[in-house]
Amino acid sequence: MKTPDANYIEKLYRAYYMDVYSYLMTLVKDAHEAEELAQETFFRAMRSKASYQGKSGERTWLCAIAKNLCMEHFRRQKKKKPENVPKEVDAGIFLERDVTDRMQSLEIHQALHKLSEPYKEVFSLRVFGELSFREIGQIFGKTENWARVTYHRGKLKLQETLEKERKNEI
């Protein structure tokens, strides 16, 4: 017989697995890694269920866990040295492009992490969670128009942050 916690996590899993998996796919761009991280997301959700306060939707809570796992994953990958670096020049070009894409993705996520609420959550729900403005408005108990405006403002703030950081690098 399953415990009430196991039933709750199973319901979450059935309801949100594809959302979490899709979100992770946009971040890691690798099906196997996204699947592993999605499984770990639900495992961590099960372990930290008591700390979930219900201030955000379950999908948002799970995506936040997934995002944190993804950041840990990127940090681990950064520390690892490549095992089998292809010798062909073409493969080197693809490897370089992949590294650049991941670095840009990490840069965007770091800038996103600096955004204040509700901009950060609305932007994440729209871009990574692929929710409609209507759904985002419902999550926050606001209107669809509020979600649109908040997303647009968050996007502008994110662009400003990225531009400032790039100028500081020069």
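Next protein, fold it too.
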Amino acid sequence: MNLERLEAQLAIDEGKRLAAYLDTVGVLTVGIGHNCVALPVTGVTKPGDTITDETCSKLFRDDIQESIDQLDKHLSWWRNLDDVRQNVLANMTFNMGINTLLQFRNTLKFIESGAYAFAADGMANSLWAKQVGDRSKRLREQMRTGEW
């Protein structure tokens, strides 16, 4: 896994906001894509509440580690993938959570078996792809080719 690349991509994909906001599906979010409903942050209970840069960095590192830990727990085979495809799964998990990722049953079976083109097609045919737009296109291409 290329943690530096994952952090860089997530920072671009998620953006950084020190003031809490409601994301595209109405979830209270702060920092770099931190879901305050799933993982409450002290002092952040409504849009406009703020955090420091230091808190943002800590939440970001912790959220990435949580995504990796969840992948290890639920998809033991993911560590056998190349760095690019590991990063795709980590990015998706960070974005939507492990429970939603696990609903991509056929896509995950394709990834596990090495049928990456079919996996990319499965990613394209999802509500997630419509919600995240260009992010989905980039991640699908990375899944398909194994290239950054």
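About the second fold: The first strand starts at residue 17 and ends at 22.
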